[in-house]
Amino acid sequence: MDDMELEDIAKALVAPSKGILAADESTGTIKKRLDTINTPSTEETRRDYRELLLSTKGAGDYISGVILYDETIRQKAKDGRQLTDLINGQGIIPGIKVDTGAKPLAFSEGELVTEGLDGLRDRLAEYHKLGARFAKWRAVISIGESAPSQYCIDTNAHALARYAALCQEAGIVPIVEPEVLMDGDHNIDECYAVTETTLKTVFDELYKQRVVLEQMLLKPNMVVSGMSCPEQAGVEEVATKTLYCFEQTVPAAVPGIVFLSGGQSEQKATEHLNAMNQMGTYPWEISYSFGRALQASALAAWQGKKENEEAAQAAFLHRAKLTSAARDGEYSPDME
Fold this sequence. Notes:
By secondary structure, the chain is an alpha/beta fold. It has one domain: Aldolase class I (TIM Barrel), CATH 3.20.20. Helices cover 44% and strands 15% of the residues. The chain has an eight-stranded parallel β-sheet with strand order 8-7-6-3-2-1-10-9. Strands 4-5 form a two-stranded antiparallel sheet. It is globular, with a radius of gyration of 19 Å. InterPro entries: Aldolase_TIM, FBA_I.
């Protein structure tokens, strides 16, 4: 892997039939997930759960890369091997979340800016030594009465571009993740407008900061109705508007778009991805970087119990297989 160029790594992450598993939940977020199955969140249970996913036989057929959390990239499997060795053994590329979370944006009530630039150059050098070959930074844009402000979009786009440039300098492929949140009662057209403005601003900033587009991936939201919007857009409308938005904003030099699931159910995220891949060929690969939409059924099957590990791995593999089919535009709901 060491002699792979950044462009090769970016392309490998969006190889046909494959996508990325986001297993980089922060300690706070993974606790919420484990709470749903009444399992205490300890270093050991977190390791057990992630090892279960990463050691699933055959996962490498559908998963190209996995985004890890700082704790996980340093952990060893039960057999004493580094978890990163387990991942590499499956032909999967290890990645790392490097931002330190979204914090309140000064002088902008209710809006957030993602932090983590301080010391990032040194952290990236260490993560590269630990085996990470790509990274992720998530910016959060919410839609509300007077939100988002251009100030919030600009500040987050600037930070995303600074992060991306530092990654490429360190020999790590940056995944640039500007997420327009689904929370709210806005309709799909409001989501479209905010997503379009956000992406235009992000690519303008990436250009200013000399980020090489061929050596990065974009991890955006799909253009969808807000979760509490009474009129939910259908699958075809979501796929059409999402692709149209990206045709307007994402340069052809970007190798791939790896969509986040962003709180959609497993099936809904899969249906949307499938519909987009059925709509023809585009300059970029249309793939996935799902967290919950690849993990929910595995977590439910596991229930924190050793005797359920096989069932959980089977559930994870099944979900990965369906998502991979959608990545190729060959999914249908009767495969569920």
